[in-house]
TrEMBL record:
<keyword id="KW-0342">GTP-binding</keyword>
<feature type="domain" description="EngB-type G">
    <location>
        <begin position="22"/>
        <end position="196"/>
    </location>
</feature>
<dbReference type="InterPro" id="IPR019987">
    <property type="entry name" value="GTP-bd_ribosome_bio_YsxC"/>
</dbReference>
<keyword id="KW-0547">Nucleotide-binding</keyword>
<keyword id="KW-0460">Magnesium</keyword>
<keyword id="KW-0131">Cell cycle</keyword>
<dbReference type="InterPro" id="IPR027417">
    <property type="entry name" value="P-loop_NTPase"/>
</dbReference>
<comment type="similarity">
    <text>Belongs to the TRAFAC class TrmE-Era-EngA-EngB-Septin-like GTPase superfamily. EngB GTPase family.</text>
</comment>
<keyword id="KW-0479">Metal-binding</keyword>
<keyword id="KW-0717">Septation</keyword>
<dbReference type="InterPro" id="IPR006073">
    <property type="entry name" value="GTP-bd"/>
</dbReference>
<dbReference type="Pfam" id="PF01926">
    <property type="entry name" value="MMR_HSR1"/>
</dbReference>
<dbReference type="InterPro" id="IPR030393">
    <property type="entry name" value="G_ENGB_dom"/>
</dbReference>
<keyword id="KW-0132">Cell division</keyword>
<protein>
    <recommendedName>
        <fullName>Probable GTP-binding protein EngB</fullName>
    </recommendedName>
</protein>
<comment type="function">
    <text>Necessary for normal cell division and for the maintenance of normal septation.</text>
</comment>
């Protein structure tokens, strides 16, 4: 698979520290604990890829991974991270806004939501931003293994219904980093966005 040789590139605390804005990249966003790092690792078939960039107690803002030349995945900060103060969180919000509004190479945004807790405030904020920016969005309803397949399907249908008036390109799927459910579908989409 094309994502299997992905390597950690760099972490940026500030928007201006991001690598050159060239080529194409796909960013992973979602509330803290939604399963972003786990999804990245599973998609790239590497157990510790996303963890290597984590400094305990001082998580960086944006983590960049090289998929191929000028093709990147980006782990965005989770909202609601409990271990940092309000001031740090505000700073992150500012940098995240900067990233989302300025990044030319951003080809699409993957929004991860725990299938048991979809469509919280942060998710709506990103969905609204995506609509305004005309940014393609793809929702992964993660940890689908935590529900029965029927219950997970029902949630997928309900979230799809709730988002049916979303004006921009938007797709949704179930995903589990544990069971591998939805891997193919996510791979295909990321491959398209990155033009791999
Ligand atoms: P932050 O970096 O804090 O924003 O969190 P994150 O979104 O990167 O979440 P992370 O991948 O660290 O996962 C959070 C917890 O959920 C961990 O304990 C994972 O093991 C667990 N988890 C993630 N994905 C899955 C999944 O598909 N199934 C199950 N059962 N657990 C999962
Ligand atoms: Mg993480």
């Amino acid at each position: 698979r094309q994502l299997h040789s992905t390597q950690f590139l760099t972490s940026a605390q500030l928007y201006k520290q991001c690598p050159p804005d060239e080529g194409r990249e796909v960013a992973f966003a979602g509330r803290s604990n939604a399963g972003k790092s786990s999804a990245l690792n599973r998609l790239c078939s590497q157990k510790t890829l996303a963890r290597t960039s984590k400094t305990p107690g001082r998580t960086q803002l944006l983590n960049f991974f090289d998929v191929a030349e000028d093709r990147r995945l980006v782990d965005l900060p989770g909202y609601g991270y409990a271990k940092v103060g309000a001031q740090t969180r505000q700073q992150w919000q500012k940098e995240l806004d900067g990233y989302l509004s300025q990044r030319q190479s951003l080809a699409g945004l993957i929004l991860l939501m725990d299938v048991r807790h979809p469509l919280k405030d942060f998710d709506h904020m990103l969905l609204d931003w995506g609509a305004k920016a005309e940014m393609p969005l793809h929702v992964l309803l993660t940890k689908a293994d935590k529900l029965s397949y029927g219950a997970a399907k029902t949630t997928l249908m309900n979230v799809r219904k709730a988002l049916k008036d979303h004006p921009g390109p938007l797709s949704l799927q179930l995903f589990s980093s544990t069971s591998g459910l939805g891997l193919e579908e996510a791979w295909d989409l990321i491959g398209q966005w990155l033009e791999l």
